[in-house]
Write a structure and sequence with these properties.
Aspartate Aminotransferase, domain 1, Aspartate Aminotransferase, domain 2, binds pyridoxal-5'-phosphate, 3-stranded antiparallel sheet, single chain, about 15% strand, 2 domains, alpha/beta, about 40% helix
Length: about 375
């Protein structure tokens, strides 16, 4: 009996039972001590995942709310340089255009190395803030946060980093890298329900707080309320309880174990692609690497995305296609959160079968290649 679809997408991801159960609660007063404890717990547990000593402010809104809050509060009327090699980098650039005095798009083809030489030139020309997506989910490429942080430090620019699909699944060292403002989304590697996001901000970021700020997403209000263990407006309370439970699971597993597990699962999917005789989509170099939380695989000639993923869906599993111009070019398998060996083998098995049904004979068995990596 199949009563739910296995999500093997780069978010949202399946939630452990404990996380789901944490939401099944009577309403509470969000100005009382119980919610306060919950907020404090989440902040304490998120910090090591961000690699920061700074406080993490929680917003009732998906990852994009935290992206917009970061740019609006800390970059308003600033000259911004936005690194773009995928959909989410582009989103930060769009937000930058709305709030910055100027936003310069420093782009490369989706999934290819970013033009860091152009970034250096823009910083020399006076760019005051830089945006980067650490793990660009749309193309499954991991971007060089540390190198970007070094450039920002050298030129005293503010570094805004989207860590939405790296935090809690891959190594993020915000303080060490000099990432001033870092954002997380709940439904990705944390395996919490969708609808919450978090922002951490450095001393330098707060010194750069814009005079002009949005109303609902005014982070100064979030900071002030956090000092009383509250949020400025009514929070999505059940989601906070679930997020706390998801953070506890990360603590119990141990962050380094969790990161190693994510890497192993992504390695297994990459090994399967290679055994099938298919190319991985990202173009890597010394600074850019494959994502450890999502994998983008190029379709063989003649496979239609809707047919391929339709067959996988029939097997009870959902993975993702390519976004925008990458539709029919790539498909993406997310290996985030609580995902483990059985889920990875299931999606690879379904994909292998779908390829055959659609007339593509894989060069070898992806499932067997993955099993070797997974050590089973
Ligand atoms: C999912 C995601 C987001 C945020 O998307 P929401 O739909 O607002 O949660 C932002 N950046 C990256 C890299 C993502 O993967």
């Amino acid at each position: 009996m199949q009563d739910e679809t296995l999500l093997m997408m780069p978010g949202p991801v399946p939630m452990p039972q404990r996380v789901r159960m944490a939401m099944a609660r009577q309403a509470i007063n969000h100005r009382g001590p119980e919610f306060g404890e919950c907020l404090k717990d989440i902040n304490r547990m998120l910090k090591p995942m961000f690699g920061t000593e700074n406080d993490c402010l929680i917003i009732s809104g998906s990852g994009t709310a935290a992206m917009e809050a970061s740019v609006a509060n800390f970059c308003a009327k600033k000259k911004m340089a936005c690194l773009v090699n995928g959909k989410f980098g582009e989103r930060l650039y769009q937000i930058g255009k709305m709030y910055g005095s100027e936003a310069i798009e420093l782009s490369s083809e989706w999934g290819t190395p970013l033009p860091l030489d152009r970034l250096e030139a823009e910083l020399e020309e006076g760019a005051e803030a830089v945006t980067l997506v650490h793990n660009e989910t749309s193309a499954a490429i991991k971007n060089p946060a540390e190198a970007v942080g070094r450039l920002c430090k050298k030129h005293n620019a503010l570094f805004i980093m989207d860590g939405i699909t790296s935090i809690a699944g891959d190594e993020v060292l915000a303080d060490k890298w000099g990432a001033d403002v870092v954002v997380l989304g709940s439904q990705k590697c944390l395996a919490a329900p969708a609808g919450l996001s978090a922002v951490s901000a450095s001393e330098k970021a707060w010194e750069n707080l814009s005079e002009w700020r949005p109303y609902y997403l005014d982070l100064k209000k979030y900071k002030k309320s956090a000092e009383k263990d509250q949020t400025p407006y009514t929070p999505a309370v059940p989601l906070f309880f679930a997020m706390r439970e998801a953070c506890r699971i990360v603590e119990e597993e141990g962050l380094s174990n969790r990161i190693a597990r994510h890497k192993n699962l992504a390695d297994a999917v990459r090994a399967a692609a290679s055994a099938w005789g298919l190319e991985l989509f990202p173009v890597t170099d010394a600074l850019h690497s494959y994502s450890n939380t999502a994998t983008a695989i190029c379709y063989p000639e003649g496979i239609k995305d809707s047919e391929f993923r339709g067959l996988i869906k029939k097997a009870g599993i959902e993975c993702s296609g390519g976004q925008d111009h990458l539709k029919d070019i790539i498909f993406r398998i997310g290996t985030m959160g609580a995902t483990g060996t059985p889920e990875v083998l299931a999606v690879l098995g379904a994909a292998e079968k779908a390829f055959r049904q659609l007339g593509y004979e894989p060069a070898g068995s992806g499932v067997e290649a993955a099993e070797k990596v997974l050590n089973i």
